[in-house]
Amino acid sequence: MTRACEGRYAHPMPDSRETTLDLDPKYDAAGLITAVATDRNTGELLMLAHMNAEALKLTVETGAAHFWSRSRAALWKKGETSGNILHVTEIRIDCDQDAVWLIVDPVGPACHTGARSCFYRRIEGDRLALVE
């Protein structure tokens, strides 16, 4: 949107992150950005994790998903020990650059439990049920 269009809209001009093609991730107070990974072929949501600037940089450079573990306070390459690597085919960032979408070719299950996706259960009332 240009300044000429500003008067036509009830909301203020968007942040420059929303209007330029400059990569400028908006990390939270802990220096993290949310990342989701989906299977390139099926579209299935595989996992949600967090990235710091180094994890995002390594993912872009290597084509393998890297994340920041909040529980271990450490950088990790997905599949480094299990072999269940996420080969990144495309990286998208949302409109205000505070979330990343990794489109991947997974090698093996994405979840540390051995499930194909970390989202293998659904909420039914006050209980959980396995997704078939």
TrEMBL record:
Query: Where does this protein hold Zn(2+)?
Result: C95, C111, C118
Query: What are its E.C. numbers?
Result: 3.5.4.19
Q: Which cofactor does it need?
A: Zn(2+); Mg(2+)
The catalysed reaction is: 1-(5-phospho-beta-D-ribosyl)-5'-AMP + H2O = 1-(5-phospho-beta-D-ribosyl)-5-[(5-phospho-beta-D-ribosylamino)methylideneamino]imidazole-4-carboxamide
Going by the UniProt record, its keywords in alphabetical order are: Amino-acid biosynthesis, Cytoplasm, Histidine biosynthesis, Hydrolase, Magnesium, Metal-binding, Zinc
For this protein, the record's InterPro entries field holds: PRA-CH, PRib_AMP_CycHydrolase_dom, PRib_AMP_CycHydrolase_sf
Q: Where is the Phosphoribosyl-AMP cyclohydrolase domain?
A: 47-120
Q: Which domain of life is it from?
A: Bacteria
Known PANTHER family for this protein? HISTIDINE BIOSYNTHESIS BIFUNCTIONAL PROTEIN, HISTIDINE BIOSYNTHESIS BIFUNCTIONAL PROTEIN HIS7
Q: What is the protein name for this chain?
A: Phosphoribosyl-AMP cyclohydrolase
Query: What species does this protein belong to?
Result: Sphingomonas psychrolutea
